[in-house]
Amino acid sequence: QVQLVESGGGLVQAGGSLRLSCTCSTRTFSIKPYTMGWFRQAPGKEREFVAAISWSGEKTNYADSVKGRFTISRGNAKRTVYLQMNSLKPEDTAVYYCANKYSVSDSLFDSPDEYDYWGQGTQVTVSS
Question: What is the average pLDDT across 1-17?
């Protein structure tokens, strides 16, 4: 079983920054390659892709709405993934979820249906 725990959400003014963290815990993590992704869901809207990073960390992908403002990265032990969010806008307000997907091909995925495990989410609120 894999557990994902997000942290770092909060309230910030437009133009500000937040850094989200997601820690993955499982006894088998060290031998299984996982792609990690961040998604978000605003009230009344579907869950949408934000960013993803491959197991090696060499490949990343971003939604057009966050390119140039958000950066996804992995910790050295690869158990933690970060989402650095800069120049935040009110439309970035949502619950942010991290997810992982077992992948031996070091691939990226942008559909929530492709991911295997999810965290509980962390609220990000950007005031205008």
Answer: 95
